[in-house]
Amino acid sequence: MNLTAPISVRKFIRILCLVLLLLLGNIRVTAQSNVDPQQLEKKIANAADDHQKVELLITLSSYYLNKPGEEKADIEEAERLNLQAGKLSTILKYKTGTGKVMLLSAQINREKGEREKALKLTNQALAYAKRNNLPVITADTYKELCAYKGYERPDIEQKVKYLELAIPLYRKGRAVKKEADALKDLADYYGLLEQNQKALGLLENAVSLYKSIGFKELQGVYTLMSGNYGLLQNAQLSLQYALLAEKTAEEVQDQSYQWCTIYNHLGLAYYDLLKFDLAFANFEKALNIALENKNIGDVNAITYNLASLYCHKKNYKAALRTLKRTEKNFPPTDEITKIRQLFIFAVSYSMLKETEKARPYYEQLLKKYNESDLGLFYKLTGIIIYLQQSGQPEKTYAYLEKFRKFAEESNNLVFYSQIELLAFQSDQASKKYESAIKHLKQHQVYKDSIFNLEKLKQSTALELQFETEKKDKNIKLLRQQGKLQEAKIQNEKVIRYVFIGSIIVLILFAALLYNRSRLKNRANKKLELKRQQIDEQNEQLKKLLSEKEWLLKEIHHRVKNNLQIVISLLNTQSAYLDNEDALMAIQNSQHRMHAMSLIHQKLYQSDNLATIDMSWYIYELINYIKECYSSEKNISFVMDIDKIFLDVAQAVPLGLILNEAVNNTIKYAFPESRKGEVQVSFKNMEKDHYKLIISDNGIGLPDGFDIDETESLGMNLMRGLTDQLDGNFTLESKNGLKIIINFRKNTDIDDQHTDFDIVTE
Q1: What angle do CA 383, 385, 388 make, to 5 degrees?
Q2: Matching CATH number, 591-744, of 1.10.510.10, 3.30.565.10, 3.40.1360.10, 3.40.50.11270
Q3: I need a surface site. Which of 284, 559, 572, 707 has the fewest CB within 10 A?
Q4: Is the overall model pTM greater than 0.70, yes or no?
Q5: What is the pLDDT of residues 723-732, one digit of tens each?
């Protein structure tokens, strides 16, 4: 249910992206430098001195370590080259080389997945670099320590501290390129901490440093600037920098994995401008690059972006298809990504009213919720939506209370707004209309506050730019106020009039407040009256529905009784007949009427007046036919029936077809009391497509039989009834006779649609 106007949704959803959409700020890209390994090997062989050889060995080792893809042979080669550089540095007592080798060894072990060992080696490298006064290597080690932290807020804050220690060290060592890289990474982390204006300032400094050394590969910086402008609600600048990143990457002929991030940010920029087709197209390009490189983390991140966008468009089936596309081959490796995927599955299936499919994901979310508070927003939201959509709104209130405590701890207005929206939906489902209205109003208040907060963030840069001018204006204004105050002091009469006027204004204001209070109370009374009227109307509708169901049951009961009376009349009539053909015709008519009577009997006895359980019906019908011929025929029946529900319009012709087919088989397939077997199968082949098969191992059809020329009433009746089902009628006469009926379920009565909004609205 849509609770906000389109203009509000556009702004609100961009803020929720901080929580529900990964902006790929966490997609780290290590651009592979233009290194030719063969040329490096030649340089190593022809190195002028051993110190140069150490540096070349480290460079080649780093190349294999950072080579795209995760080939085991590349990591082994990187380890071999680094070990060789370490031995030579020890012999030379080359401290810079030893420090670099120690750090590279830590990075190699981290890449191999041995994180504890790698972290220990990193700390050893840090201690060595500090002890030997190696500022650049010390800074490199601080930067490496960032890799051991995740993307929760405390981890990001620790990364910021590491980089703020590294940047002055790079400056001291005159490592301009590394200083600019560190500024870019620091800006990235500040962006994740929602300090977007500060991030943009750092990125501007990084661009200046890059340009000062003639470095042209600025696409990564422009991508981050695009992301930060997007979070500041400046969609035009966000798109401008995303397009600049794309243009720069083309100009420098970038063939690296960084295109994945560029396409992702282009998608986000187009999304902000409501150009959803372009957003989807760029997200797909980013995902294809991540899939091609088998980058599990990025595949999961972009897949989640796509699925979340599909959910925002209320295309939950597409969201599910997107997740399933990568679910098998790229399972999430970190806990927060697992939780996000469970969240999308649970919400999508719930909103599609497929609660049975949603239940396993809900149960997993519930289990993880009881284990830890990681990803609590996703867990609680997914659990609450499932309970709402599965008809259990009363169970949501305990989780809503937990959500409130979580929001208080994080002090995030987005969370407060989300809680009020979920509470409104639960109250509405529980028919607590007064409480629902309160929550809806509070949701709107929080949402308005969020928008005002975003506007405040947007104005920060402008305020800094004109700060001096504002101070001058404030001084002038204070001087003017001082002169006015002196004039007021000198003129007591004016002051008195002003005082009296103020009192009058206060009185008018109090009167206005009192009037508004009266109007509000009157409106509340009207609202309460309307609520009572709605409750009364609901009770009347329930009563009418109950009466309607009773009448329908009574009709089916009467129809069944009338058919039984006709069957009895035909049975009485047969006692006065000697003609075998007439007796046979009466018996056939009785069987057909019984087939119809069973349907009305089931509808009368069932609470469901719309559909028939065909597995029960076919079993009862065949048992009836078997009893009619039990003393004459030695025939066994094998039934393979799925639990399928059909409406009366399809159940009646299907029952008559089955009656004709089985009766004809018993009468003609096994002459002279021959023993035989009849198989009846009714299967759901695919969604809403069914197949009925009646086969026997009897004598089959006579040679030269032409179904189009036959005058058999039963055969023509079955074909006519198949046409009534809009199905296909097929005969196969091999080792007996097989009758095949294919038809599609009548879904006209199911075409009822309820439109839902995902909770990210």
Answers
A1: 110
A2: 3.30.565.10
A3: 572
A4: no
A5: 888 899 998 8
